[in-house]
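seq:
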Amino acid sequence: MAATPSVPSTITEPDYQLGSGDKVRVTVYGEPTLSGEFFVTGSGLVSLPLVGEVKAAGLSVGQFQDAVQKALSDGYLKEPRVSAEVLGFRPFYILGEVTKPGTYPYTSGLTVLNAVATAGGYTYRADKNKVFIKRNGETSEVKTELSPSTTVAPGDTIRIGERFF
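struct:
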């Protein structure tokens, strides 16, 4: 029997990488017309006033902040001070043996058990010991033992399987 890969049980916010569907707030100190709330597009870019599109997908919030600051300092502003924060994460998806499968908003620190509760709980056929998780950007799902600390990341697809007997 082949060994199944395991899913990391935690995600730390500083390591969070922006992706399509995230909503970010960019604040440029002293420049209210350049500040605002923006979405990361399907192509992974954020369209900002004055500088145009800035790559966001795959970057941490700090790296994105630095990219915006660099874009603004390239002939637009002298020593811009920029801050960025995530206002809304991309949703997670849950399917399988839950009462209300679907798309739900992600909240920081979300676990699989919280996700199941959000989806109305398990059905009577649910396997409460294992979960299948497909991380955002991955091509296949990974089976892992379900524990209270199994976390969900934005964009993940969670599948609760059926138990046998």
